[in-house]
Predict the 3D structure of the following.
Amino acid sequence: MALASQRQEFILATVREQGTVRLADLVKRLGVTAVTVRRDVTILADRGLVLRVHGGVTLPYRGQGADERAARGALVHGRPPEQAFVGMVVPTVEYYWPAVIQGAQSAVAAAGGRLALRASAYDAAQDRRQVAGLLDRGIRTLLVAPTNTGEAGQDLLRWLGSLKVPVTLVERLPPPSLPTLPLDAATTAHDLGAGLALRHLVTLGHRRIAFVTARFSPTTQALREGWRETIAVLGLPGHEGLAHEVPPYGSSGWAEAYDATLRRCREAGATALFVHSDSEAIGLMERAHENGLSVPDDLAVISYDDEVAAASDPPLTAVRPPKHRLGALAAEMALARISDPIERPVHRVQLWPTLVIRASCGGGEDQRRAPGGPLITGD
């Protein structure tokens, strides 16, 4: 069977007939290499026609056979097994993620389990090494924020979907090219958070709102998309000349770069800034003051993060992602998957951020409501 389409039809027919087929058996029956069989299986799995499992392939939707009923009988119902051992891999333990980790830790501890943490660095190969290390430690379930872009990211996600232990994605989703990958996920609606910020600024009379960021991450990308979509939906002037990247606050040459960014924003007619994240917003307000601009009278500012926004001068209005709750939710989903791996459907849960109103935007109390989302005033 030289043609890939013929091999794939044979694989699909065999899986339909037998339910589950070992990859080694397919290699022998097709008379091709293991690499060829894995490639064919990957294509079928990406199309949602089969499901990769450890060492083999099965149908994505199976009835409850005797083996499944036996597995169900061995589970502890209604709660995770005693001393549930949960692994967690995150890109960093410094920025954004500490609160997420703490939330997961609290949920696992409340269930009588233990969390084992490892950090990666936005690298698919390192993600895989860290996960493999946790598997060797005997974890029962996995929380992971993997690299999910490019060919390496897709291969990593396919591998995660084939593991024997259940996997819950944190702040990540499979790309559209893997539409049926059966992985649970807990995410934050960052794009909606950008919309909350812009809508609040519009209620205060702003029409040209710049977006400033200092780092690239999946969160940054979602915020940029939300900023652009909200501009289009609200019929605001185009975003040309209003998107800028700056170095991290306090890094070499930051003051000159922030001065230049403020100058370009003002030249483009911006009267408000939406900044990712708090520290860069604080730096921009500092430089605005040094250049004779008043916040919020001359320039309104909203940050995304709300870790240190309340300590700025003036205190920053900020969009607050629910980091601690997100980590706790992801852990709860992972523990629930241990208790019911058979019938529990795939869960994709998205949490909304909240808008925290402070002084950096001005406006009276009657103006302090962002349409379409939760509101917190001060704190």
In short: Confidence is low (pLDDT under 50) at residues 62-82, 364-376. The longest strand covers residues 85-90.
